[in-house]
Amino acid sequence: EDLFENEGAYRQVIAGVYANLALTGTDGAGSSNIEGIDAGTSQFGRVLLYMQTLSADQMIWSYENDPGTREIQRNIWTAQNPLILGMYSRAHLTIALANNFLRETTADKLDSRGASESVRQDIVAYRAEARLLRALSYYYMMDLFGKANFGTEADAVNTVLPVADRAQLFDFIESELIAIEADLIPAGANEYGRADRGVAYMILAKIYLNAEVYIGENRYTDCMNYCQELLNSGYTLATNYKDNFIADNNTNSAVNEIIFSIVSDGSTTQNYGPTTVMINGSVGSLEVNGVEVGVVQNGWDGALRVRKEFAELWQGGNFGDDDRNTIISANRPIGITDIADRDTGYIIQKYSNVTSTGQAGVDQTFVDTDFPLFRLADVNLMYAEAHLRGGGGSLDVAVQLINDLRTRANNPNLISSTDLTLPFIIDERARELHWEAHRRQDLIRFGLFTGGSYNWAWKGNGSNGIAIPNHFNLYPIPNSSMSSNPNLTQNPGY
Amino acid sequence: TFFGQSKVTGTVTDEANALPLPGVNILVKGTTTGASTDFDGKYSITVNEGDVLVFSYLGYSKKEIIYNGLSPFNVTLSEDAGQLDEIVIIGYGTTTRKDATGSVESVTAKDFTKGNIVTPENLLQGRVAGVTVNTSGAPGSGSEIKIRGGSSINASNNPLIVIDGLPITNDNIGGSRGILSSINPNDIESFTVLKDASATAIYGSRASNGVIIIVTKKGKSGFSADYDVQFTFGDIADQIDVFSGDQFRTIVNSQNLPDSFTSQLGSANTDWQDEIFRETVSAMHNVTVRGSLFKALPARFSFGVTKQEGALLTSQFDRRNLSVALNPSMFDDHLKISVNANLSYEDNRFADSGLIGAALRYDPTQPVYDPTSPFNGFYQHTNGGTLLSGTTNPVASLLQTNNLGDTERFFGNINFDYKFHFLPELKAVLNLGFDETSGWTNNNSVFATTDDISANKSVGFQNRKNQSLDGFLNYKKTFGDIEADLTTGYSYQRFTNDGFFSGNQLDPLSFGDTYADPDIVLIGFFGRANFKFLEKYLLTATYRRDGTSRFSEDNRWGNFYAGALAWQISEEDFLKDSETISDLKLRVGYGVTGQQEISQKDLFLSRYQGGNNNSLYQFGNTVITSLIPSEINPDLKWEETKTLEVGIDYGLFDNKISGSLNVFQKDSEDLLFDAPVPDGSNFSNRIIQNIGNLRIRGLEFTTNVDVIQKEDFSLNFNFNATILDREITELAYGQDVTTGGIAGGTGNFIQLFREGEAPNSFYVYKQLYDNQGNAIEGAYVDLNGDNIINEEDRYLRADPDADIILGFQTNLEYKNFDFAFNLRANIGNYVYNNVDSARAQYDLLQDNSVLGNIPTSVLDTNFQTTSDVINSDIYLENASFLKMDNITLGYTFKKLSNVIKSVRVWGGIQNVFTLTEYSGLDPEVFNGIDNTIYPRPRNILVGANIKF
């Protein structure tokens, strides 16, 4: 209670809710407020990247002695997996922090503390943002696990929470995001590091696009509406594709494209999050090209590579000059038959810790590069997909939006309306949005993740890929999470 | 009959060697009149003829003699093997071994383990059943002390250590090697180990893991002086086998490495372990003077200097101790005051033992020095002048690191022991204790790196304070056949801790940090009643109520109690005259003790934590100190351990054979355990909760045998055996919890807590072997039969704790020679060989961009890839061992002159041998995971003790 006598504390506490997306603890990148997983690995964007990208056809992690990675990238995970635990717990921690903020900022509490008018003004937006971040967490829980421990500010700390299923979560996310719209700061207008209406629109567009998966309903029209809302919100594509993925992506032209990012700073916001991992990890074992991307020469010695199927998306001559194609293939076979052999398989250089003016980041391990969780290019692609799936909009606009991305990437091969098909969309999404934690969700929506219609390298634990059962469309509820909440039941198949 | 009072004088000598015994207590039986002998064994006392004089001396048989009127009245005392009348220190008072109802073992100076003892706990090593002391090879290093394996999982497993009435903290301080390393073993008079609940319950809240009571040496009225010196010459006995330069060239060339690696092979043959380890010379000097100041104030002064070199290059431990004990008595001995003050300075230079790993890894075909090197003349892997990524030269790292730690510790107590004038049966004791340690660390190092920051300069300071006040009343009186001994008291203790660390001052991104822990306050009220009926039946009841600041007001107080019954069977008529059985006592005790020592100090409070300078968030263009609420558990309460023990103390053949046998079961309930909470309901996914049960069952056996006890020839041995079994009987939600982090992978672990199993059981894959018995790389048994090898196929096998622990010491004295050695064995302890599991694979011949050495054990497995094999049970080994820790031989020159009373010269060997099947360096590791330990050197010792 003493804390809030200083009214600046409200801003610091809402910053704490945001911080849980970027940081794992309060004492540096090696500290963590959740357990059962390596501290640095428990960063929100990192586990999200593992869940959505490492589990699919774009990425390989060379060091399978890092617990959980082997099972995720070979699709043989179980409820013991620490990375799955990390995802479940980290996202729920945001929910707990948001609920705490909402409990501490009720009208009654503000009255009793005699809060000033100016801080009450700020708190309106802060509360909306706390609800937004809570909805964001529930969105990922709905997508990855199909259920969540369902707590709101009405639930006291340290209680056993009820469980919401996919449909209940869908309803909650939808109604919350619509309810807070007025209180949120207009899209693109909030200060750096905070979320605004654009983020709410983005989550809504995403849940409507995937509504057939989540609740078996066709909501493409709703998706289209929010895509249009976003396209009309003043966002513009960054001048260069790579501006989105470099050290100054918080100040360069990407600020107009990135709708929400996970903050990283080599000095003040150090984390082992997705950008630190991808920039250090994609330094090649043969290339030793760390200095080029602003980290130590050898980076993490070839920790990350791409799978054959992703590499093949760039073959065929049309993508030689495409800025999105950052593949380095010299002296490397395209296939990976031994995951531990870091000299096989191609590597990419999508992310970098160097600014648009060529300055290396302040630290050679912890990068300055923010992780673009949502960006406008995804809206372009969602628009086209929603249109193809019967959500309305215009075909010409859809083609134009795709070509805008290609033009921005300096790829002269523009598409025509006949090229715009769903199979094209899933591939183009991979080319535009690879390593941005979308892939598993996209493959599931296209029916390609489980089953045997699309077998990528190491899917199902075979070097050439084998079918996996449908229950892998959802992750299992981690054992310890389930045991501590008797209301939870395990997902079928696990 | 009336006899006239007279003043009698006399001399008390040792029956065995006729040397005078200083400090013998003499009491006129049935009165409070007493005296003690001076250094020359002389005493004087006022007695009536016909009075019974009681002569007692620690370690000697008590003698009761009717005064016959003669003067001088000379008496001889003989050493008592059984030590039935030995005074045994128990919490807040004393008893005798004969009257003890609990499991209490004491070890006094003459029984201490002999050898190169730098830190006090090693005096106890292997001496007491159920007590294990595991010390690293680093100079002056701290130890892991456990009594009966430890009764907790996430809360502390350390015993409570009480020095002269002051319970000390288990938390070490920056700059020091350990909580006991600043204490001079030479100042210690005795250790008493309290093991069962009936003995420990008087310390209630902190007694679950047993109590070690240390009493320091006191002042005596007779003058004596003592100079003790010892030199130690150490050398590493064994190394981990890695490839030599020549072997390495062969292996690298046979492994199909890219040219960029094979071209790096050098022509040298460097044994990097030889380069980082050294032969050491260490010395200890102690000077002790005892005597009466101003002929009235018994005092003891001691000064000790210890200088110990570590086997690892540059590591060093220096200590200076000054200790003063004053023991005045006033008002006709009604008020006894005891003042102990100890000042200690510890100067350390720390060497990073992680560099042992670097030495195993470093390319043996490269030289240590390279005159052309830009890295201060040390060879480093470079390419065109740029450093290549990979392990850096460990000799360079050691020599270019100057990591110093200096601590200053003052501890001591003042004890007032007042026997009421009007009621001599009642005494009041007040003990004030103080312990303050300040530690400074200062690190200046240079390292080879491609980073911009190639040096570290940091300083730190830490201060810990521990203040205690204990007061109690004790009433002792005999009512007919009943002897009553009643104690009641109050205890208060406060611990503080604060300090700062500068961070690397040469790194603009590194920040300093100042911290101050919340104070810990512990308050206790206690009472104990001892009754003895007919010299045969003993009853003890103990109660303690404790409060801790670690828990909320509602849960703060815990009640702990114990009761014990003992039956001195040998006092019964049917045994009283037995020639065989000289002593037989049956004990039964039950009690409940508590545990509150967890690392969090205010988990029950709602708190917010701000990020440090690297853990901030950004709003707009400014960084903001984000505040994150900390995990909270307002319901936290005491963990309780219930102990049931049945014991027999025995003595045979006039106590030539004596010892005890204990059987016990400890059940720790409401374990303070780090267990999952429903996600989203708290500010973490696991918090410390009172959940789970741990059961420890054990059997302890001790025997002391006086084989020969003659004037010129004595031989005795002590043997102790412990059988111990720890099992988690209940865990939160029946849920497995991973533990035991290992090298090789980020966040990799090898152990598990699981219901029904021993804590820290190893969690491994079951290795598959081909027909020839060779392990197949990465092939494991599909234990759940689902055709997929994943986490579900790991199984639990063995645990790090020994099932059986044995200790054996023997002392032989023949004329002026003395000879002693000790043996220690652990049976059934398993070790996970992390040195091999994370290193012995051919892929690791590539160390980032350079070549790296690997253990030769790779030849046994031919394994290629670490990640395929690291969790295999092939690396889990039975590490049972038999060790001879020390062997010493001494010769004493007696009565050399009027000034020099005696000179003993001696020599010995420490770490004589280890018999084990374990393939790693040393089977005795911490927590069952062997990841390059600081090796324990073999030491040759020579020393002398001169008495004046």
Could you give a short description of this structure?
Chain A has 494 residues and is mainly α. Chain A contains 17 helices and eight strands. Chain B folds into two domains: 5-77, Carboxypeptidase-like, regulatory domain (Immunoglobulin-like, Sandwich), CATH 2.60.40; 240-359 and 368-818 and 826-885 and 904-947, Maltoporin, Chain A, CATH 2.40.170.
Written overview of the protein:
The complex is a heterodimer of chains A (494) and B (948). Chain A has helices at residues 8-22, 44-54, 69-73, 82-104, 107-112, 117-144, 166-180, 197-209, 211-215, 220-231, 274-281, 308-312, 376-388, 395-408, 422-433, 439-445, 479-484; strands spanning 60-61, 147-149, 163-165, 258-262, 304-305, 327-328, 347-348, 371-375. Chain A has 494 residues and is mainly α. Chain A has a domain at 2-184 and 435-484: Serine Threonine Protein Phosphatase 5, Tetratricopeptide repeat (Alpha Horseshoe). In chain A, the strands form 4 sheets. Chain A has a two-stranded antiparallel ribbon with strand order 1-5. A two-stranded antiparallel ribbon of chain A has the order 2-3. In chain A, strands 4-8 form a two-stranded antiparallel sheet. In chain A, α13 (376-388) runs antiparallel to α14 and α13 (376-388) runs antiparallel to α15. The longest helix of chain A is centred in the first third of the chain and has 28 residues, at 117-144. The N and C termini of chain A lie far apart (44 Å). The mean pLDDT of chain A is 95. Chain B is mainly beta. Chain B has 2 domains: 5-77, Sandwich (Immunoglobulin-like), CATH 2.60.40; 240-359 and 368-818 and 826-885 and 904-947, Maltoporin, Chain A, CATH 2.40.170.20. The longest helix of chain B has 10 residues, at 245-254. At the A-B interface, α1, α4 and α17 of A face β34, β35, β37, β40 and α10 of B.
